[in-house]
DNA sequence: CCAACTTGTTAGGGGTTTCTAACTTTATTT
DNA sequence: AAATAAAGTTAGAAACCCCTAACAAGTTGG
């Protein structure tokens, strides 16, 4: 029955791992002209055969255009997902670094793990909150500076 | 080599799913006198056989004390992990409800997915931030009320 | 007490993601 | 151009977590 309807291939939601691959591919394609299996493997901390098999999955699901031994590209759908995950990552990381004063390495690492659980809706709300705090800081009281001092005043700050 | 050292059984970190089970068991054991397979299954949205097999794993890893057809208990180790995950859940959920004004159902759902990625360190920092904001609100300016109004003033609030 | 129901377990299988070992293809070097 | 190195692929296996179907154990009601 479903087989007759052309665009019903991908009802299944993407896994967090698939989202990770799309985000990495998105990022790499901004940094370099071509995206290589080797680079994806290095970024994700997996071996090359793992990447190869995932690329097949992503290709079958219409998220990337890929033929073996050739370069790969994100499709429109893959691009929009990769971009969205990347946006979640940046927003969460900014919250961790700018508001909570967590150092950049840890922020990056934890944003990476939290970015799959947060919805578009909640992320938008977080963006608004960050903007709101920014506005507050501009108009004199500088809430975040106060929080920074509040954190620092407790001597058990093993990092900033 | 390691086999000779008694307490080196579990170097492998727990998976997010294992943490979920421990958290649910922790929560259920507070709510009721006994924890049942059926209740765990219902909370986690899985079938009973799935729970049974996970209980074996958790038992083998010394996180619960469990014999088939008998009641189960968390060990000290399992208890401390379950409690910690539960704490992360509550803090994250409070952030989502109290600061970002996300409704409780969504907050609960997303806290559940984010709680595994956040470190103890970052969580402590988040707790401090929530306390700090609380203090700010007490001393007149009521930052969070202002943010609540800021959110409301945008008419596209499909929820609060 | 026996039937019916609920609860829990085994057995067996499937999808996802990872790995190592061995191979092929492409790129570089001499 | 042939030899070597690097990049990529298959094949096959394992860990993890889920499922259904069937069976076993406990509980309840006639």
Describe the secondary structure blueprint for this structure:
2 copies of one chain form a homodimer.
Chain A: H1 16-31, H2 37-44, H3 48-60, E1 64-66, E2 72-74, H4 76-99, H5 104-114, H6 120-138, H7 143-153
Antiparallel strand pairs in A: 1-2
Helix pairs in contact in A: 1-2, 1-4, 2-3, 4-5, 4-6
Chain A binds a DNA duplex (30 and 30 nucleotides) through helix 3.
Overall description:
- Two copies of one chain form a homodimer.
- The first copy, chain A, has helices at 16-31, 37-44, 48-60, 76-99, 104-114, 120-138, 143-153, and strands at 64-66, 72-74.
- Chain A has a two-stranded antiparallel sheet.
- The first copy, chain A, is built from seven helices and two strands.
- Helices cover 64% and strands 4% of the residues of chain A.
- Chain A is elongated.
- In chain A, helix 1 (16-31) crosses helix 4 (76-99) and helix 2 crosses helix 3.
- Chain A has one domain: Arc Repressor Mutant, subunit A (Orthogonal Bundle), CATH 1.10.10.
- In chain A, a hairpin with a 5-residue loop joins strand 1 (64-66) and strand 2 (72-74).
- The longest helix of chain A is centred in the middle third of the chain and has 24 residues, at 76-99.
- The first copy, chain A, is mainly alpha-helical.
- Chain A starts with 15 loop residues before the first helix and ends in a 7-residue tail after the last helix.
- The A-B interface holds A 96, 99-102, 106, 110, 112-114, 116-119, 121-122, 125-126, 128-129, 132, 136, 141, 143, 146-147, 150-151, 154, 158-159 and B 96, 99-102, 106, 110, 112-114, 116-119, 121-122, 125-126, 128-129, 132, 136, 141, 143, 146-147, 150-151, 154, 158-159.
- Chain A binds a DNA duplex (30 and 30 nucleotides) through helix 3.
